[in-house]
Amino acid sequence: MELRDWTDSSMLNRIENRPWADGFTGHRYLDPLDQAGSDARSLRRLLLMMGPLILLFCGIGTLLAQSSGPEAVLEEGRKLFELNCSSCHGRDGKGSRGPTLESAKWAGPIGLESLQRIIKDGIRGTEMPSFSFDGSEGQLRAVSMYVRTLVGSFDKMASIGDREKGESTFKRACTKCHMANGKGGRLGPDLSSIGKVRDQPGLVQAIRAPDKQISPYFTTVTVVTTDGKRIKGVRRSEDTFFIHVMGVDETPYLLNKKDVKEILRDDHSLMPGYNEQALNSKELQNLVAYLMTLRRD
Amino acid sequence: MLRCLSTSFILLLTLAELVSSDGLSPERLREARREPQNWLTYSGQYSGWRHTELKQIRTDNVRRLAAQWIFQFKGIAHKFEATPLVVDGIMYFPALDNRVFAIDARTGRQFWEYRRSLPEKMPVCCGTVSRGVAALGDRIFLATVDGHVVALDSKTGNLLWDAEAGDVKDGHSFTLAPLVVNDKVVVGVSGGEFGLRGYIDAYQADTGKRAWRFYTIPGPGEAGHETWEGDSWKHGGAPAWLTGTYDPDSNLIYWGTGNPAPDFYGDEREGDNLYSNSVVALEPDNGKLKWHFQFTPHDVNDYDATQIPVLLDLDWKGKPRKLLATANRNGFFYLLDRTNGEFLLAKQLLNTTWANGIDRNGRPIINTDNIPDEKGKVVCPGLYGATNWMSPSYSPVTRLFYVVLRQECFIHVSKPQHYEPGKSLWGGSNQEAPGMPRYGAVRALDPLTGESKWEFKLHSTSWGGTLSTAGGLLFVASEEGYLIALDALTGEELWHFRTGGGIYASPMSFAVDGRQYIVIPCQNALIAFAIT
């Protein structure tokens, strides 16, 4: 094999090696459709506008799928995925050479169509080739259906908590470090779109045990400069010559490594873990319900 | 007055050069070292050194290096992997998607563009990239991503001939810069991931008629055929997707070959799978195999051996010897006798979990506990290898061999898969192994021992190659978008420039009007630097 490589930064696991990528909007790169350019973006707008319809179609889609034996279809899809897709997108679809496929984008019926189209046609100018499978629609559909299961469904995302109470909890506990829709702190990730890129279990883990999975954009560092200053914060990006740190005081530092004596890396997130005492189950449920409403495009 | 006269004289000379009708002869290609103002083949010289004899840019003035012009092509920028050629003041290079440009090397201004449409559906593993063109006479040769070899008129870009060299529908494509040897244009096919049977072709430069084809997998009745189980040879891969080198004295070309297919699943192609992951020495007149050396027999980790075979004439154990040095994707540096393929030395470059070492015959001692299976194994070097197609350099000044290394590990999963035309044939899957160290490095080696003399660490794993210079410099490009100048003797960083785009290419150098330039492609731009 010659080499991959998606030029853009849609692979989260490659982000830290692409420091020229726009570190401030890291979550944007979770979106694999950014590859496809303006077509994809207009599709996304359409998807948003048609939100209520999507839920309806989604139901119908599920019914249709069930009538044709969804388990068998998904199993076929899984096999085809492993054979054709996993070498680039990873066995679990979390991305490898290619981007992660875990995106809520594919969940609706338009998602299914665009997914089928992308698989069938490939994406010009990238390494995503076209796959015709056996030439019929059946296999194409099976793979697409399977890819959608990698995401978690809309059902899973629908929430039972109280969003309004969740919002007040958010304002009290989270906005010191996180922004949502333009309000809040700068140290942690902007959460305005978090409902699109995380499912509920993911959010629960991020709140209860933030150390378990830290975005490469937000690892904790203390930079010791040659003149003895210590700068603690999150490492937004790093390359051979520079490190960009958002200090805990929200000052963005771009430090030339020539002026750096040491970079102390910390496996712990700057975000505290919220245990049962800090945030009881009900509060957590409400908070997650609110976070799931954050779906800014 | 004198100065004015001499300037006019130089100008006249330059013009004469530009309009000279005899163009680029095979003799000039062989003696490329004598005209360092030009960059006549992919690696600059047949020997594969990627070294320039120009020394206007030196360790003591490199800090004054500044961009002089930028050429940008329109369209989606993906991976701009080309090394431009410079022939008498004109620069030729391919961009992505079957486009070739000719520009004025002094100003970056375009003379012409050749475009060739791409088929609607095209199975390529790794992008519609091209790494360069070749030149002879007044012709420029491109091996196209849709499986053709074409000749263009160097003054207009007009198509002169077009030879089909492989069926693109089945995954035959070209991504390399062709190599002109005497009157022939030599190319190697890409597409091992689609289960083709690899080959190296030569076309007559004047007519486009195919002169010979060397299959990298021997057919029935040929020596080496027995190293393939059953019919596995028919779809065994072993492409030849990077430009080889040539030794005019022994009249042999040296070409690296790629991995066997399916990549990770080897159970149905038992045997060494010759001549996959090898270097083959061929006679350029007829494509006859003189010798071969296989680095990774029966590979199941995608360890192509396509890296540039670098030709050195050095004393080995007190006697002058014709050597071939190569840093292999499998994690080892090798030294061979290039007259007969004799194995002389192997030296481990990075952690290798697939092999415990190399035995005295040059055969790897396989770590049988770490062969990819259905559950997957963590393999180092990972899928992209300890190094890859980015060019190494050899400097006759420092007598050091420079290579860009990638420290990373992957999980390789092996699963049965069978050939279907035009479909990828990985025989499993891969992904980056989490939690393993990952970084890049430029290392200077003593080619006679493989010992490291110095190493310059890069934060990211790099796809950029090196260029050494007679001015005592080593230029290296990082995937982060830096062009970096190091002291070739010590590895000390002297200068860097942030291009602002990802770099997937190796630097080159040329001179025009008495001025030396360093050129690096990045994103969709070529940037030319000189001392100001």
What does this structure look like?
The complex is a heterodimer of chains A (297) and B (532). Chain A has 297 residues and is of the alpha+beta class. Chain A has helices at residues 38-49, 51-67, 70-84, 86-89, 109-121, 137-149, 154-157, 163-173, 194-197, 200-208, 281-292, and strands spanning 179-180, 183-184, 219-225, 230-238, 242-247, 252-256, 260-266. Chain A folds into four domains: 1-41, no CATH class; 70-150, Cytochrome c-like domain (Cytochrome Bc1 Complex, Chain D, domain 2, Orthogonal Bundle), CATH 1.10.760.10; 160-213 and 272-291, Orthogonal Bundle (Cytochrome Bc1 Complex, Chain D, domain 2), CATH 1.10.760.10; 216-266, SH3 type barrels (Roll). In chain A, helix 10 crosses helix 11 (281-292). The longest helix of chain A has 17 residues, at 51-67. The two termini of chain A are 36 Å apart. Residues 4-67 and 152-158 of chain A have low confidence and may be disordered. Chain B has 532 residues and is mainly beta. In chain B, strand 33 (473-477) and strand 34 (482-487) form a beta hairpin. The two termini of chain B are 25 Å apart.
Beta-strand content estimate of chain A? 5-15%
Q: What form of chain B results from the Cα inertia axes?
A: globular
CATH superfamily of the largest domain in chain A: Cytochrome c-like domain
Number of domains of chain A: 4
Q: pLDDT below 50 for ≥5 consecutive residues: which ranges of chain B?
A: 1-21
Our count of helices of chain A gives 11
Can you give me a brief rundown of this structure?
The complex is a heterodimer of chains A (297) and B (532). With 297 residues, chain A is an alpha+beta fold. Helices cover 38% and strands 13% of the residues of chain A.
Give short descriptive properties of this protein:
heterodimer, A: 297 residues, alpha+beta, Cytochrome Bc1 Complex, Chain D, domain 2, two-stranded antiparallel ribbon, 11 helices, 7 strands, 38% helix, globular, B: 532 residues, mainly beta, 5-stranded mixed sheet, 4-stranded antiparallel sheet, 2 helices, 4% helix, disordered N terminus
